[in-house]
Amino acid sequence: MKVTSVGALDSIKTRIRDAALAVGRVPESVTLVAVSKTFGIDDIRPLLDAGQRVFGENRVQEAQQKWPELRRNYPDIELHLIGPLQSNKAAEAVQLFDVIETVDRPKIAEAIAKEMRRQGRSPKLLVQVNVGRELQKAGIDPDQAPGFVEQCRSQYDLKISGLMCIPPVEEVPDTHFRMLFNIAQATQLPLISMGMSSDFEAAIREGATHVRVGSAIFGAR
Ligand SMILES: *Cc1c(COP(=O)(O)O)cnc(C)c1O
Fold it and tell me: 153 FRET partner, CA 20 to 30 A, in 21, 128, 159, 211?
């Protein structure tokens, strides 16, 4: 698996490049976030050796067990939090992550703002949008997203850099990706995180700047 994950990484990078070129986009305008959740340090190291530097984790505690050690050898890692954040984990998240993609409610924005001031750290922040308006799913309602982005700025002094979404699994994602892109345009946010192993090429067609790919690189979880 360690050998094949590097081969899989190469083929995903080629597919990202081809998908970008096919719609007239510069391939470098799409960043691959390699989602390493559930995989251990020994599975991750070969990818670091192959030059991959941007990774995603969905749990704060799991990331804490893996990444401080890896960072000692690879200080230029960029680590993204892509899973839901509880306010009692805000301190750890602000300390460990370079990008927090899952800001989705005032309470979390407030907790992150407080920790950023306290620690003097400033991870990039994305707002997660519940594009499918699914009851069980995290993220702010699409209609409330622009107002929430503005609230983050005015009330919590937080700079929001972009938007993130996870479309409903059972639906064709394209219209959901387009909705996220349109909200990002309307709110003038440059970063758009969307697309996973099964649909990252569609996401690139719709304007993703970050695709989050796990199983297509690391294998089944
Ligand atoms: C697990 C996960 C991914 C990666 O999913 P794959 O289908 O394995 O590529 C992307 N985004 C989020 C938020 C995830 O939790």
Answer: 211
